Automatic annotation (TrEMBL):
NCBIfam families: SA1362_fam. The lineage of its organism: Bacteria, Bacillati, Bacillota, Bacilli, Bacillales. Residues 73-88 have a biased composition (Basic residues). Residues 96-105 have a biased composition (Low complexity). This is Uncharacterized protein. It comes from the Bacteria. Keywords: Membrane, Transmembrane, Transmembrane helix. The chain crosses the membrane at residues 7-26, 32-54.
Length: 138
């Protein structure tokens, strides 16, 4: 297998780091554990600081008005679900219907579906920041 020069350098650096860690652990274990604790504590502090900064920035971004749009969108979705909710499933153990009643039901279903299609879906307009078009030439 052929390796590039940069991967060989990375392996050499990792090997030297491992040798250094082992040597420090053997010569002075107290200092080694103290260094590890300092590095872990610094990483935790940095992570916490970054987390709080990012959450505060995200909170300001949503407070500007996009949360209001999201509330309107959720309300529209809820209204749509209420309007088009599916009927509950029928029980399995129902007696068989006669052929005449099946024909009437299918004809009524066909009429209903055509009526529903002509009515179209319910759409709700969510107002946003829209710029009015300017007439370029009159």
């Amino acid at each position: 297998m052929r390796r590039s020069g940069s991967s060989i350098i990375v392996f050499v650096l990792i090997g030297l780091a491992a040798i250094g860690v082992v040597m420090q652990l053997v010569t002075s274990p107290g200092a080694f554990f103290q260094n590890v604790l300092v590095w872990v504590g610094g990483a935790v502090l940095f992570g916490a600081l970054l987390y709080f900064i990012l959450t505060r920035l995200r909170g300001r971004a949503t407070a500007g008005g996009s949360s209001n749009d999201m509330q309107k969108y959720k309300k529209a979705v809820k209204q749509s679900k209420q309007k088009y909710k599916q009927p509950k499933a029928r029980p399995v153990n129902k007696p068989a219907k006669s052929a005449a009643s099946i024909k009437k039901a299918s004809a009524a279903k066909r009429k209903r579906s055509i009526k529903d299609r002509s009515r179209g879906p319910q759409l709700r307009v969510i107002e946003g920041n829209k710029q009015k078009r300017k007439k370029s030439s009159i």
